[in-house]
Structure formats: structure tokens, C-alpha cells
Amino acid sequence: MTSGLKRFDGYGVLITGAARGIGAATARRLASEGARVLITDLDATAAERTAAEIPGADHIGCDVADRAQVEAAVARAVERFGTLDVLVNNAFSCSVDAPAFEDESDVTWARDLDITLTGAFRCARAALPHLAASGRGAIVSIGSVNAEADFGNHAYSAAKAGLASLTRTLAGSAAPRGVRVNQVNPGTIRTPGWAGREAALSALGEQVYPLGRVGEPEDIAAAVAFLASRDAAWITGTVLRVDGGLLAVHPEFARVITEADTVDTVETEDAGDS
What is the set of active-site residues? Predict the structure, then answer.
């Protein structure tokens, strides 16, 4: 579903981890409002498939753990569109069946933080001069309710909490350059990571979420579109919770979601399964 608005006519947009799920939904939403979108993903083939479905979209393989690849993606967007107005940080890493804290390995901890948090830093660092030059620049990062409650995945939660801190600190330094920086924290979202578990997903929505369902990728895409647009011209440094009322009403249900929800340890997964 789209709004019929055209808030992004002439905009150039770069979205990481955009081959599927929240990233792909966000690409479709912004493109439907006039944006020209660069689909980036660790899986270059999947990025190409998604871009082929979106009019005017381009694609490039990009590992956000690699500074050179990040800078190449930003350069591609500027070359292709003549401008870079919006960066959406969506790529992340999250371990399946996270171990007990004392069993967490240095490798897993470092990987999750490097992709989820430092990856967003690399993208923002490369994009910021172009976002400032556009005169309407915006960064929107996809966080998670994991950053706000005990969901049992220490590395992922720490990375997402760090991302919220980066959002706030970068907002202050980017504001004088005319760039706004915000974040969306989703609850459980119906993404490809839930394939084959529809019954569990439906039960989770009905039993845990106050609004009676889990979120759809389009719910998050709509929030990103708002924060990236001039409708949010006086909003920066904000973390917007989009979780169906979960943490406002039932913060004690964090463990219930942990038991039901796992995601693949791949950057091509979109952030925000919970």
C-alpha cells in the first residue's frame, strides 16, 4: 500500500540490506513516492532481482563491513542519481540461538557489532558530505526493540542500542550541515526469517502484541518514509518505536518473543524482526 504522495521526487536514496524484507519494502515505498533508489546488499544477485522490480532502481553488492565497498556504493548512488538525499541503514548481523552471556564468543560479538553498528557508521561517514550538499539530507537507521529490553541476544541488543546512541550524537553534529538523523525501532516484523513459522507468528501477534498482530515490512517502510521526508523537517535525534504497543503495555513479554523469534545470521536479513 502506498500513500499517493510524491514527497521524494528527484531524491537519490541508498538503502543497505535492501534485497528483501524491511529494506525492500522501504525501497518500494520511497520509489512509489518518486525516489530513485540504490538497492545495496551483501547478496548482489538478490539486490539485482529486487531492483528489477522497482522502476528506476539501481543495485550494487555491498558489504558494510568493508569501507571500500561502502564508499563505492555511495559513489554509485551519486553518479547514478546526481544526488544523495537519503541514507537508510538497514543491514545487520544477528546470531541464531544466541548463547548464554558467558558463552558468547569474541568472534560473534565483534561480527554483530561490526556489521550492525560500525557498518552504519561507515555508511553515514561516506554519505554525509553528499547529504549535506543536497540541502535536504536525512539518515534513517533501522534499530530494534532489542535495544530497549532484555530479549536475550546480547551482541545484537548492544549493537542496536549503540546505533540509537550514534543516531543521537550524529544528529547533533549533522544538524548544522542541514542533515537530520533519526531511527526506527521495530518490534516483531513478518520478514523472510519467519518463513515456515506462520502459526507461531500469528499466535505471537494475538497473544503478545496489544494491536493484535505482528508488524509488516510496510509498517516500518511508512515510518521511514515519514522520517526521511520534509514532513519531519523539525525532527532529528529521535528514536521512533514502531512495535504495536509492545513495550509500552507489556515490557515483561520480552522473553516470550526471544523463545519464538530467531533470525538468520546474514546481513541480507532486514533488521527489526524484534
Answer: 156
